[in-house]
């Protein structure tokens, strides 16, 4: 619903949905109804495939969405039966150590803004609907409410590939499931599917795929029945721990990951290629004998 501003109030140059929805259409399909904006990641209309251009687009898109006063609730989801995928061999043509300083700086900017702008620039309730397995679950985890399907896969691949888990998933694991459990999953890369994520406290509901988006819209519609003030102030409370976590720790995590990448360790790309099924195929089932109990934080 439109804002009810007094005659002396005004917006100067706020983004228009018609403009930014076209700007990011290659990566994000946006629809809006009655103040609820749905943002669906995609590649050529199918499941999202990671690219450096998309990596750059995310943070810019969150800023534009957050600056549009006509957005009241955000639903973030993916396309088809995957949340996020990609082929590491198509992304890493050149070792990071050989990138120019400006390209390395852009990587730092992109990897931090994709989470920082979601948390700091969006002042409306956020709902993530994770529609399948895939990496980059950190910004879905940082949403106010997170829904997922059973074959979701909350995993951090960095350490298994010989890198440092610094671009956000490790941090969101620490803040949701506790430092001991987070350490286990950061080191082992063990799968966390939907039921395990619900048990551990990463998500709020696990649903059949056909019910996922309708449930997100149902929750968003319930939110819209309350006042704009109640929505935004409740979101301010819900998001404050994430703001504190990013200010305290995210730069530290990201810098350590990029520092490790500048070392140019041999074999990292080969390890990523060995893990290709985790980026492209069905998530394996977690082991049943440990009940995911690796200690409370």
TrEMBL record:
GO terms for molecular function: catalytic activity. One of its GO terms (biological process) is fatty acid beta-oxidation. Signal peptide: none annotated. It comes from the Bacteria. This is Crotonase. It comes from Actinorhabdospora filicis. The lineage of its organism: Bacteria, Bacillati, Actinomycetota, Actinomycetes, Micromonosporales.
């Amino acid at each position: 619903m439109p804002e009810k501003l007094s005659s002396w109030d005004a917006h100067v140059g706020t983004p228009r949905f018609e403009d930014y929805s076209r700007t990011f259409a290659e990566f994000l399909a946006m629809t809006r109804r009655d103040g609820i904006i749905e943002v669906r990641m995609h590649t050529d209309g199918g499941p999202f495939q990671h690219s450096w251009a998309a990596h750059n687009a995310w943070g810019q898109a969150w800023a534009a969405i957050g600056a549009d006063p006509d957005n009241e609730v955000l639903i973030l989801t993916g396309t088809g039966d995957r949340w996020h995928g990609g082929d590491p061999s198509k992304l890493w043509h050149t070792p990071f150590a050989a990138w120019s300083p400006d390209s390395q700086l852009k990587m730092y900017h992109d990897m931090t803004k994709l989470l920082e702008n979601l948390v700091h620039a969006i002042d409306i309730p956020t709902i993530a609907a994770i529609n399948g397995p895939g990496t980059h679950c950190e910004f879905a985890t940082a949403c106010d409410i997170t829904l997922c399907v059973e074959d979701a896969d909350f995993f951090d691949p960095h350490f298994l590939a010989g890198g440092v888990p610094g671009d956000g998933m490790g941090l969101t694991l620490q803040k949701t499931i506790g430092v001991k459990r987070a350490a286990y999953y950061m080191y082992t890369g063990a799968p966390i599917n939907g039921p395990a994520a619900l048990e551990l406290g990463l998500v709020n509901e696990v649903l059949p795929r056909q019910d996922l988006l309708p449930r997100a819209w149902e929750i968003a519609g319930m939110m819209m029945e309350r006042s704009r003030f109640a929505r935004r102030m409740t979101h301010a409370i819900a998001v404050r721990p994430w703001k504190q976590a990013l200010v305290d720790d995210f730069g530290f995590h990201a810098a350590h990951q990029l520092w490790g990448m500048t070392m140019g360790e041999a074999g990292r790309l080969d390890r990523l290629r060995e893990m290709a099924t985790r980026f492209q195929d069905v998530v394996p089932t977690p082991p049943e004998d440990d009940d995911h109990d690796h200690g409370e934080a």
